[in-house]
């Protein structure tokens, strides 16, 4: 195998391996159901009855806000890293006004989402309380981790025993992320409809959504490297996260057939991904210059923090468009 092909294969493996850890149950259901494998045969009587039941099921999922539940559960993954990043920058006295404001808003949103997933919240598109035992258990597991985590954040903001509380935040942030991954899978298993999109569409939707979390993880790990806190990030971890972010972005932009990823479905998404790739090239160069030997000025780290916030905003828009483009056209 020549070098270009070998690198392409390794990139595909990186995408697939990372996705396998965080993939949603909806994609797994799609693979097992064979969705996306089209047929020209007419449905039998039993199959037609099944289609009617599926249509009724879809109506139920929309009535209770299934898509909103999945989206909000997934958002907890990004918020776990956004909160940790902002806490790190605030504690390091970097972009303090911005980092404090972001921390407080993200913390409030995290609480709102947990409450909505449990009890429902029509303003967020979730109708009625959750009733499934496995999903409730996954929500409670997140809440059990979040409660002391939030208390530590409040103490940091209040200036109370900052060192000990910051250590708790640093040491617990990935556990919170992992529990959010589990919750997202449970909610997806309960509310997603595998017949609504092909496997390739589901993969693109999940990868674009994961980019939001990775943008904030990069900011957090950069802060960890600069302040010397290995629980928040090391140079090795940062390089790995940056590599996954870049590989995923390039795969979305250009397609990666060996990983099951198709090129953008329309010109608008292609243009936005190209702009995101160009911006990332500049941000990556700054990251490498700022981190360097693990030493950076507060001004340089603050620049990275703000740039990764811009990356997040861009990826939120791209992920939303992927989700919209994957919806069945009626």
Give a structural overview.
The chain has helices at 3-22, 25-33, 45-63, 66-91, 96-119, 133-158, 162-191, 199-227, 235-254, 267-291, 298-326. It is an all-alpha fold. It has 2 domains: 62-192, Up-down Bundle (de novo design (two linked rop proteins)), CATH 1.20.1440; 197-330, A middle domain of Talin 1. It contains 11 helices and no strands. It is globular. Helix 4 packs parallel to helix 8 and helix 5 runs antiparallel to helix 6 (133-158).
Task: List the main descriptive attributes of the protein structure presented here.
single chain, 330 residues, mainly alpha, de novo design (two linked rop proteins), A middle domain of Talin 1, 2 domains, 11 helices, disordered N terminus
Question: Secondary-structure blueprint of this entry?
Answer:
Elements: H1 3-22, H2 25-33, H3 45-63, H4 66-91, H5 96-119, H6 133-158, H7 162-191, H8 199-227, H9 235-254, H10 267-291, H11 298-326
Helix pairs in contact: 1-9, 4-5, 4-7, 4-8, 5-6, 6-7, 8-9, 8-11, 9-10, 10-11
Brief description of this entry?
The protein has helices at residues 3-22, 25-33, 45-63, 66-91, 96-119, 133-158, 162-191, 199-227, 235-254, 267-291, 298-326. The chain is an all-alpha fold and 330 residues long.
Number of helices: 11
Profile the largest sheet: none
Provide the structure class: mainly alpha
| Amino-to-carboxy terminus distance | 45 Å
What does the radius of gyration come to? 21 Å
Q: Any idea what the CATH architecture of the largest domain is?
A: Up-down Bundle
């Amino acid at each position: 195998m020549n070098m270009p092909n070998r690198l392409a294969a390794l990139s595909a493996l990186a995408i697939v391996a990372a996705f396998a850890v965080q993939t949603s149950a909806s994609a797994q259901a799609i693979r097992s159901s064979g969705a996306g494998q089209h047929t020209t045969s007419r449905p039998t009587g039993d199959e037609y009855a099944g289609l009617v039941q599926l249509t009724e099921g879809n109506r139920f999922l929309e009535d209770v806000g299934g898509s909103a539940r999945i989206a909000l559960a997934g958002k907890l993954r990004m918020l776990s890293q956004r909160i940790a990043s902002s806490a790190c920058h605030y504690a390091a006295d970097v972009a303090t006004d911005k980092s404090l404001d972001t921390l407080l808003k993200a913390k409030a949103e995290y609480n709102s989402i947990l409450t909505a997933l449990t009890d429902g919240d029509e303003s967020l598109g979730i109708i009625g309380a959750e009733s499934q035992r496995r999903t409730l258990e996954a929500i409670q597991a997140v809440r059990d981790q979040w409660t002391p985590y939030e208390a530590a954040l409040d103490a940091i903001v209040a200036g109370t025993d900052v060192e000990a509380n910051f250590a708790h935040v640093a040491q617990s942030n990935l556990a919170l992320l992992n529990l959010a991954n589990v919750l997202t899978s449970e909610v997806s298993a309960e509310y997603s409809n595998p017949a609504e999109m092909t496997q390739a569409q589901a993969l693109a939707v999940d990868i674009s959504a994961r980019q939001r979390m990775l943008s904030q993880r990069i900011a957090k790990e950069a802060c960890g490297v600069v302040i010397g806190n290995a629980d928040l990030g090391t140079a090795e971890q940062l390089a790995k996260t940056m590599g996954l972010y870049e590989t995923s972005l390039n795969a979305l932009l250009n397609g990666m057939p060996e990983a099951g990823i198709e090129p953008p479905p329309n010109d608008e998404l292609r243009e936005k991904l190209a702009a995101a790739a160009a911006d990332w090239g500049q941000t990556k160069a700054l990251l490498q210059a700022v981190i360097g030997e693990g030493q950076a000025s507060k001004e340089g780290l603050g620049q990275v923090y703000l740039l990764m916030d811009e990356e997040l905003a861009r990826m939120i828009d791209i992920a939303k468009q992927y989700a919209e483009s994957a919806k069945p056209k009626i």
